[in-house]
Design brief:
It contains 21 helices and no strands. It is mainly alpha-helical and 423 residues long. Among the domains are: 107 residues, no CATH class; 148 residues. It starts with a helix and ends in a 21-residue tail after the last helix.
Length: 423
């Protein structure tokens, strides 16, 4: 009886993390702390520790903590310990979730869809709150562009929120295709998908809009190739076209950030700028970051010194907007390479590539889309430097990796066991 209570608290904590991440992220660490405290009081992890290296799936789950351990080791050649310990605190979810999930009873890993539905509910709730806030700012305070980009995102960075919404859209459309989905719910799924897609367009994150198009095309193509069904694929592509046309007609400013890419990059090559401009700043920051990597290829500059090294490179390279705003490398691949050297970079890549191969072999399209969304977005954002990015990756990566996908033809007569990581 006691263990059932702990299992319920664990599930409720997972669903709360999934729901509140796109609603009010500041409260999410409280639920993570509750999950961790419940894990400690439960005590079953003591027995599971002895099974970690005898059961393949358990140590594979735990291996996702390797990147955090490298960051911890990176403190040994850092001089700025204050920043280093702060950075380790931000990234703590990279350790907590693998530790908890690798030592749980296998019967706990049966609630994947419930957690994902909770996340969808959070994305819809958060979207409605942000649209309501934008309407209030527009009509009560006459705020310019209240329904666009940063003003619309309010407490969220548009790129992070767009990534959340893209995962929710992908999950909704994949569930729409499933044979076990009741027909009367399918119009609701399409309606919620259109709402979230429209929100992504209004947020106007370049990475968000590009990944939305990619998600829709991939799900449509999978419907044609895997299910031999033409109608769902055409429906998804029609939805994408509809959203783009409506966005261009009703909110043309959503496309202005794309039209300015080429001119701003050309300007970056010819002028010294003192005002921020996202495209040109990224190009200059990436060039500066590559210079740091060339001189610290093997070990990196250390967990605590990465910010100082970047700021120093901005001053020597006269990238004054980046220095003023204390920008990171705006690419997690570069950020990790600067911090930990080639070993950290390879671990980060393998943490994405190996699970992606597993998901591809299992035809686990939800997990594959999640890994694609994360890997693409961290090309242009250092998402593991912010808690909103760390928790999103650490939590959903472990949930989707750990909890076996229920296929359309599979029925369970007992709690499903974890499937080994087969290569």
């Amino acid at each position: 009886m006691r263990h059932k209570i702990h299992d319920q608290i664990f599930l409720s904590s997972c669903m709360a993390v999934a729901f509140f991440l796109p609603v009010y992220g500041r409260i999410v660490p409280i639920f993570i702390a509750l999950m961790f405290l419940n894990w400690l009081i439960d005590g079953r992890f003591v027995k599971a520790f002895g099974q970690l290296f005898r059961e393949k799936t358990r140590w594979q789950i735990l291996s996702f903590a390797l990147l955090y351990l490298l960051y911890l080791v990176g403190m040994s050649w850092s001089t700025n310990h204050d920043y280093g310990w702060f950075d380790l605190e931000v990234k703590l979810s990279l350790l907590i979730f693998p530790l908890i999930f690798s030592t749980l009873p296998l019967s706990s890993f049966t609630f994947r869809n419930r957690i994902m539905w909770s996340f969808v509910a959070g994305c819809v709730t958060g979207t409605l709150i942000l649209l309501g806030h934008a309407a209030w700012m527009k009509f009560s305070e006459n705020t310019l562009n209240a329904f666009y980009y940063i003003p619309l995102g309010w407490q969220f960075h548009p790129s992070y929120l767009s990534m959340y919404l893209n995962l929710a859209v992908g999950f909704l459309l994949i569930r729409y295709r499933d044979d076990d989905m009741e027909s009367h719910r399918k119009p609701l799924i399409l309606g919620l998908s259109l709402l979230l897609m429209g929100m992504i367009m209004l947020l106007s994150s370049k990475a968000g809009v590009l990944t939305l198009a990619a998600v829709m095309v991939v799900v449509a193509a999978d419907s044609w190739t895997a299910d031999r069904k033409l109608f769902p694929g055409l429906t998804f592509l029609g939805m994408l076209l509809l959203v783009f046309v409506l966005a261009y007609a009703l909110a043309p400013y959503a496309f202005t950030r794309f039209s300015g890419v080429t001119p701003s990059l050309a300007k970056q090559q010819t002028e010294l700028r003192v005002a921020p401009e996202s495209n040109a700043d990224r190009a200059a920051i990436w060039k500066s970051s590559l210079g740091i990597i060339r001189t610290n290829f093997l070990t990196g500059v250390g967990t605590g010194d990465v910010k100082d090294e970047l700021l120093h490179s901005y001053t020597t390279g006269r990238i004054y907007p980046a220095y003023k705003l204390r920008m990171n490398a705006h690419s997690q691949y570069l950020q990790t390479f600067i911090t930990l050297g080639v070993s950290g970079f390879l671990v980060l890549v393998l943490m994405i590539l190996l699970p992606a191969l597993r998901a591809f072999r299992r035809r686990d399209l939800v997990y594959l889309l999640f890994l694609f969304l994360f890997s693409f977005n961290i090309l242009v954002e250092s998402m593991l430097e912010e808690q909103a990015g760390v928790i999103f990756y650490a939590f959903f990566n472990i949930v989707l990796f750990s909890m076996q996908k229920k296929t359309r033809t599979q029925t369970f007569t007992k709690p499903p066991m974890l499937v080994p990581f087969d290569f």
